[in-house]
């Protein structure tokens, strides 16, 4: 696998040495409201040079980490199943080499391709899901492959008791009832209350960690296709993400639903990049050797 010509900040390790491999999944063909997430990974990569590699939150530097950026996949716009197959193939390759795939969407449907790959390697896979939306419809506008049904399709693979959802504040009543009353997923409304307990229930099991960035309030993150008022702050998201990574056995993860075109100020892209930096550093923390004078 060749390194992308333009890489994220500090993510320029050789593939053979890397423990984490980034790849972009620029796809938004099932977006139901405002498109633009297909540009996220490209714009994030270009804007990364405006942010420092050093994290004052964790006192760590990406320059000391081993992260490889493999660039963006060439996906089949308009063909969701073929796109998911391409994503699954890339994630499977990274997993088979003993590395952690970190995917940047794209709309949330792209998560399904990576979950398919992770579930094949880890049959007892669990999912931790941060989002404003349930994403549990069985179909949307007649399609079972939609960003509005991605967690339902993940449930098709994993079954009951293996998906924990946080920050949820939008969806059909039937989705909430399907999750909460029928017990198919562990759904937590509005914020991250109960996160530590949920992660503890997945102790020892492999975890796929997916963050839809619209879990944040539009005041902090307006650049997304389906913004929902009442979300969490950046610092609340950061602390929750670190809790998952530090407490769970995270084997793959993603960030999705940044639409840079919907925030011309560039602030949403900068927020997404900070979330990415902190997640990468948290994943790498056990391996980073820091020498201070």
Cα-atom radius of gyration: 17 Å
The CATH superfamily is identified as Ureohydrolase domain
Coarse morphology: globular
Alpha-beta classification: alpha/beta
CATH classification, class level: Alpha Beta
Question: Major sheet: order of its strands?
Answer: 4-1-5-10-9-6-7-8
Please explain how this structure is put together.
The protein has 293 residues and is α/β, with parallel strands linked by helices. The chain has one domain: Arginase, Chain A, CATH 3.40.800.10. It contains eight helices and ten strands. It has an eight-stranded parallel β-sheet, sandwiched between helices. A two-stranded antiparallel sheet has the order 2-3. Helix 4 (150-158) links the parallel strand 6 (126-130) and strand 7. The radius of gyration is 17 Å and the shape is globular.
Brief summary:
The chain is of the alpha/beta class. It is built from eight helices and ten strands. The longest helix has 18 residues, at 267-284.
Helix-strand layout with pairing:
Elements: E1 20-25, H1 40-47, E2 54-55, E3 60-61, E4 67-72, H2 80-96, E5 100-105, H3 110-121, E6 126-130, H4 150-158, E7 163-168, H5 173-180, E8 186-189, H6 195-201, E9 206-212, H7 234-247, E10 249-256, H8 267-284
Parallel strand pairs: 1-4, 1-5, 5-10, 6-7, 6-9, 7-8, 9-10
Antiparallel strand pairs: 2-3
Helix pairs in contact: 1-8, 2-3, 3-4, 6-7, 7-8
């Amino acid at each position: 696998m060749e390194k992308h010509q333009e890489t994220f900040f500090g993510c320029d390790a050789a593939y053979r040495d890397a423990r984490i491999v980034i790849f972009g999944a620029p796809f938004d063909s099932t977006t139901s409201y405002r498109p633009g997430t297909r540009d996220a990974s490209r714009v994030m990569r270009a804007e990364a040079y405006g942010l420092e590699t050093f994290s004052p939150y964790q006192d760590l530097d990406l320059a000391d980490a081993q992260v490889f950026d493999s660039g963006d996949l060439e996906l089949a716009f308009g063909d969701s199943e073929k796109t998911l197959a391409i994503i699954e193939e890339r994630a499977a390759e990274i997993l088979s080499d003993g590395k952690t795939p970190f995917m940047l969407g794209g709309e949330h449907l792209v998560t399904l391709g990576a979950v398919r790959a992770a579930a094949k390697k880890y049959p007892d896979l669990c999912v931790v899901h941060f989002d404003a939306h349930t994403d549990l419809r069985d179909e949307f506008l007649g399609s079972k492959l939609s960003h509005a049904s991605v967690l339902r399709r993940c449930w098709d693979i994993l079954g009951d008791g293996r998906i924990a959802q946080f920050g949820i504040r939008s969806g059909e009543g039937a989705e909430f009832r399907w999750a909460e009353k029928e017990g198919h997923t562990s759904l937590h409304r509005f914020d991250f209350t109960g996160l530590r307990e949920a992660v503890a229930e997945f102790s020892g099991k492999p975890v796929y960690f997916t963050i839809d960035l619209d879990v944040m309030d539009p005041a902090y993150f307006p650049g997304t296709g389906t913004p929902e008022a009442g979300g969490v702050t950046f610092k609340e998201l950061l602390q929750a993400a670190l809790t998952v990574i530090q407490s769970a056995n995270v084997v793959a993860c993603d960030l999705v639903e940044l639409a840079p075109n919907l925030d011309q100020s560039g602030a949403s892209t900068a927020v997404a990049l900070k979330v990415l930096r902190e997640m990468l550093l948290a994943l790498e923390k056990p391996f980073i050797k820091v020498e201070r004078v």
